[in-house]
């Protein structure tokens, strides 16, 4: 038979256990391992171009580089302004248009319109370090400016950029899921590419006059192709990352596969090139190994979302298995 004291003791023990469980659950939920801590402002961001002080969570962001725009999109951030392509080369990549629906174009990414940026009253400007470092003093007079390696950054650099942008925008909790998805798509593409065997590739776009502009060895697409068991036949490097090739030169390189990059989906320049009688002798053409990809994706933007699109397109077209899927080469 229980005494009154014994009953009180058991009740207290149950309450204590319940308190401990509640405490443990609360501790786990607040753990930095399982739940990202909120960003503390003011925040100092240091890049090779200097240190930028961000006083509070940005609400009006102008982004001047597609790769950084890409990563903001993954984080669910919509800009008020964005950098564009040059006139006649499209506005921005198609997949970024929904997130920029209510934003304002502020001119070319490397020579933006400073007056247009100022009119938007941004509280943060993001840009490409290689493009606009010289404009940094002027941009910083408008709003705090962070310059990162977007267009020339490899996949590791893009992951670093994502983490910096997540910290700036207080969205770090989204990063693990984003990277998990990215790594899954990349691994799938690499596995398929390994089974398909190593191939040599020529990649580039065709001008309206029918000139083939090949991406050179220092183009970022070259390293991405290397990850996919593909070797760029162009070994030269150029400051512009492209070089002109005649049809005769293409025949000399004689790659296993050719990727033709389309501007806004237009096949007209390629059709002009294909009327050259020598094109019929190009091995990749004869063996149905000419693949069509998006120039914005492969040559202008290299954010994480862009990389996912690259890998998925390389799979879906049959490029990685060298077995083109019907209707992809038309």
UniProtKB/TrEMBL annotation:
Entry keyword Chloroplast: no
Superkingdom of the source species: Bacteria
Coiled-coil blocks: none
Transmembrane segments: 21-43
One of the GO biological process terms: iron coordination entity transport
Alphabetized Pfam families for the sequence: Peripla_BP_2 (PF01497)
UniProt entry keywords in alphabetical sequence: Ion transport, Iron, Iron transport, Membrane, Signal, Transmembrane, Transmembrane helix, Transport
Cellular component per GO, a single term: outer membrane-bounded periplasmic space
Compartments, as annotated in UniProt: Cell envelope
Transmembrane helix in keyword set: yes
Domain Fe/B12 periplasmic-binding: 60-323
Protein family (similarity comment): Belongs to the bacterial solute-binding protein 8 family.
Protein name: Iron-siderophore ABC transporter substrate-binding protein
Native species: Aquella oligotrophica
Source organism phylogeny: Bacteria, Pseudomonadati, Pseudomonadota, Betaproteobacteria, Neisseriales
């Amino acid at each position: 038979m229980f005494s009154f004291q014994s009953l009180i003791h058991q009740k207290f023990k149950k309450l204590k256990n319940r308190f401990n469980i509640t405490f443990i659950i609360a501790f786990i939920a607040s753990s930095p391992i399982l739940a990202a801590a909120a960003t503390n402002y003011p925040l100092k961001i240091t890049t090779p171009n200097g240190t930028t002080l961000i006083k509070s969570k940005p609400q009006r962001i102008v982004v001047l580089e597609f790769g950084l725009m890409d990563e903001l999109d993954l984080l669910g951030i919509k800009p008020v302004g964005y950098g564009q392509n040059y006139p006649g080369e499209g506005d921005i990549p198609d997949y970024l248009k929904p997130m920029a629906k209510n934003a304002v174009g502020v001119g070319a990414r490397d020579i933006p319109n400073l007056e247009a940026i100022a009119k938007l009253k941004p509280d943060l400007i993001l840009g490409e370090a290689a493009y606009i470092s010289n404009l940094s003093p002027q941009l910083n007079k408008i709003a705090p400016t962070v310059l990162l390696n977007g267009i020339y950054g490899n996949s590791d650099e893009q992951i670093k950029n994502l983490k910096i942008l997540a910290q700036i925008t207080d969205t770090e909790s989204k990063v693990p899921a984003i990277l998990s998805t990215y790594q899954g798509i990349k691994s799938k593409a690499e596995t398929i590419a390994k089974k398909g065997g190593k191939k040599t590739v020529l990649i580039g776009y065709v001008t309206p006059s029918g000139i083939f502009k090949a991406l050179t060895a220092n183009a970022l697409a070259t390293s991405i192709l290397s990850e996919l068991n593909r070797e760029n036949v162009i070994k030269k490097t150029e400051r512009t990352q492209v070089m002109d090739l005649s049809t005769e030169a293409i025949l000399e390189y004689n790659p296993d596969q050719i990727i033709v990059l389309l501007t806004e989906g237009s096949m007209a320049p390629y059709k002009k090139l294909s009327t050259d009688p020598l094109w019929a002798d190009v091995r990749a053409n004869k063996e149905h190994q000419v693949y069509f990809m998006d120039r914005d994706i492969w040559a202008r933007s290299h954010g994480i979302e862009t990389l996912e699109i690259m890998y998925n397109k390389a799979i879906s077209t049959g490029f990685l298995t060298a077995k083109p899927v019907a209707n992809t080469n038309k």
